[in-house]
Design brief:
The complex is a heterodimer of chains A (164) and B (274). Helices cover 73% and strands 0% of the residues of chain A. With 164 residues, chain A is an all-alpha fold. In chain B, the strands form 2 sheets. In chain B, strands 1-2-5-4-3-12 form a 6-stranded antiparallel barrel. A 6-stranded antiparallel barrel of chain B has the order 6-7-8-11-10-9. The chains are: A mainly alpha (164), B alpha+beta (274).
Chain lengths: 164, 274
């Protein structure tokens, strides 16, 4: 049951990303809700689950985007796995810790995407990528994590997202 | 103990290599979409279209409340004010839509040679790296790849993928986009590309050092490449030498507001041979 609900959450995040999140762009970027959800799930449930949902979320993003299938799948699977490694090591009850993790995860996932974009022969200057996209997006995702993590954590430990 | 670990590592590498291979063959430069891709695009477009319309309405409502929704002194009037504000927001939405559509009609009248089709923007690329919008017109309406997409203000982009009832438009602000352009006054040619610089999302490259590029000059399409000649692209805001000092590069401010695209015009006969 919790898997179905989390899948629905990912689907909702994806639809919002491809439609109305356009209206809440800050500094030119919109939040990556799928990444934030994968980070939440991975830190609470571990590497394997993190990698699995990173794979699913990334694959869905790739299909909706329609181009370069695999770019988001690869980057989110890796980040889901890496964040999941902190499952038992980090103080995951604290939303400020999670905001920091979301910030670092965003930097890592966007760095992977940037390298993949370069490998496709698309020219994006590193300074533009860093200041124009990666850092603002990191801050935005951290703010979103700060706002929603507490609710997600309660749901994942005591509510409908709890693994039986 | 070590063997399963090696096997896992090999599986991970094979997985990554497979994804990289798929990624390299699914770019936008393909001639046409597969039936599965076309079906997925149209299906997703149906959902996205409804949500975008709701989003437009909500945005207008919020903007209206922000500017005019001050609390009234008399309690019984508050409810009435809220009702009227709701009505005004709806009427304002129709008025804005009316103005936009009238501008599109004016553009059609002033460009009699251009056979144009109005399309609503119903979706965006979910990520932040690329500038692609989805519109609600496709092959069934005569849309083809590489057709130019414009607004009365200027150039928007070009069609890069077509499904039966939807199409993807690559915005000129996308880093993959390249537009053959020239400075309108001096006719100096260059190439306009998208950048991730949020204050000036377009750059004009390969201008000769002798080019008289100045702040405020208009940049239009040059007719070299797939875009028809003379479509406004943007205005020069700054000029600097490139790293090697051989050519000039200009920061361009686009004429189109890409964050608020709701309708666009597809020029159906913009391709050579119509």
């Amino acid at each position: 049951m919790h898997m179905l609900i989390f899948a629905l959450l990912l689907g909702l995040a994806l639809v919002l990303e491809s439609t109305v999140l356009q209206f809440v762009r800050v500094a030119g970027v919109k939040p990556d809700l799928v990444l934030v959800l994968v980070v939440f799930y991975a830190i609470i449930n571990g590497s394997r689950e993190g990698a699995f949902w990173g794979f699913m979320g990334g694959l869905a993003q790739d299909f909706l985007s329609g181009y370069y299938l695999g770019m988001n799948t690869l980057s989110l699977t890796v980040i889901g796995y890496l964040v999941g490694l902190g499952h038992t090591r980090l103080f995951r009850e604290n939303q400020f810790v999670l905001a920091g993790i979301a910030f670092l995860a965003t930097l890592a996932v966007e760095a992977i995407r940037y390298l993949l974009i370069l490998s496709l022969g698309i020219t994006v200057l590193p300074g533009e990528a860093l200041w124009g996209l990666i850092l603002p997006l990191g801050v935005y995702n951290a703010a979103v994590a700060l706002l929603f993590y507490r609710r997600f954590y309660l749901s994942a430990t005591e509510g409908i997202l709890r693994i039986p | 103990m070590r063997r399963p670990r090696i096997r896992k590592a090999l599986a991970a590498v094979a997985f990554a290599v497979l994804l990289l291979a798929i990624m390299h063959v699914t770019g936008y430069e393909r001639d046409e979409l597969t039936a599965l891709e076309a079906g997925l695009r149209d299906g997703a477009g149906f959902v996205q279209g409804g949500i975008m319309q709701l989003g437009y309405q909500l945005r207008e409502g919020f903007q209206h409340l922000f500017f005019f929704g001050r609390p009234a002194e008399i309690e019984e009037l508050r409810q009435r004010i809220r009702e009227l504000e709701g009505e005004i927001a709806t009427l304002r939405e129709y008025q804005l839509q009316n103005e936009r559509l009238r501008q599109l009609l004016d553009y059609r009248d002033n460009n009699a040679g251009a056979e144009t089709l109005v399309a609503d923007v119903i979706g965006r690329d979910p990520g932040n790296w690329f500038g692609v919008v989805k519109v609600n017109r496709g092959a069934n309406h005569g849309v083809r790849c590489d057709q130019a997409v414009v607004l009365p203000a200027g150039l928007v982009g070009r069609v890069i993928a077509v499904a039966p009832n939807t199409a993807d438009v690559l915005l000129i602000t996308d880093p993959r986009s390249g537009v053959g352009a020239m400075l309108q006054d001096s006719r100096t040619p260059g190439v306009v590309r998208g950048t991730l610089n949020r204050s000036h999302p377009l750059g004009m490259f390969y201008l000769t050092r002798e080019a008289e590029a100045e702040r405020g000059q208009l940049v239009v399409t040059s007719g070299l490449g797939i875009y028809p000649k003379g479509i406004p692209v943007g205005r020069v805001v700054a000029v600097q030498k490139d790293a090697a000092g051989l050519t000039l590069t200009a920061d361009i401010e686009p004429l189109v507001d890409f964050t608020h695209l709701e309708e666009v015009l597809i020029i159906l006969n913009s391709l050579p041979g119509g």
